[in-house]
Design brief:
single chain; alpha/beta; Nucleotidyltransferase, domain 5; 5-stranded mixed β-sheet; 27% helix; disordered C terminus
Amino acid sequence: MSFDLFVDTSRKGISIAIAGKSGDGTCGAFYKEIVDPEARGETLSKNLDNLLEQSGIALQDIGRVMVTLGPGSFSGLRTGVAFCQGICFSGARKLYGVSTLEALECFSEAPDTAVVVKARKDYWYLRLCGQESFDSTEDVLAKLGASLPKFAVVDVTARDDARLTEFFSANSVKTFLDEGCPLSLWARLFENHEPSLIQEANYIQPSYFEKGH
C-alpha cells in the first residue's frame, strides 16, 4: 500500500491527513488525520512528524502530496505551499495544488454542489458550476437563485447567515459544514490535476476597488 498526504493551511489552523490507497488508485481503509485549529505555520513540520509517528509510516512511504492553494489565509497558504514544495523537491513524491473551494466541494460527495465561505463582512468566496468568485451577499443569492444547486458546502459563518440560511431552506438545498469531513475525500481531485513542483497561492484578494467601491 502507498500513501497520500493532504495538507490544508488555507483555513483556520492546520489540517493534515494521511490516507492509504490500494493498487488501483482508490483510497484504502487506512486514514489518520491531525486537525489543530490553533496551529501556526511554524508547527507544520512538527505536526507532520507526529502524524507519521501515529501512522507508523515514514515520509518515504508518501507518494503523492495534495495542498490547498486558496482562497484563504495568505500567510497560511504561503507556509503550506512552501512546506509541501520542500518535501517534494527531491522528486520522490508528486505535488498537486488544488483550489480550496474545489477541495471543499468534495465534502458533499455529489455533483451540483455550491461552496460558500466567508471572505469578509457581507462578502463571500463562491464556487458554483466550476466557477469561483468573490461576491457580495446579494450577488451570491442571485447566482444561487439562477443555478439552484441541490447541495452546498458552507463554513460556520455562511451556515449562520440569516439570508443564506433562508435561501437554502426555501429551496431545499442540503448543506454540509466544511469541517469534520475526512480530507481523503479530496483524493478524487488527483484524477483531473497534473502534478507540479511549482505551486502558487491562488489567493483572491479582497479589495475595496472591487464591486465599484
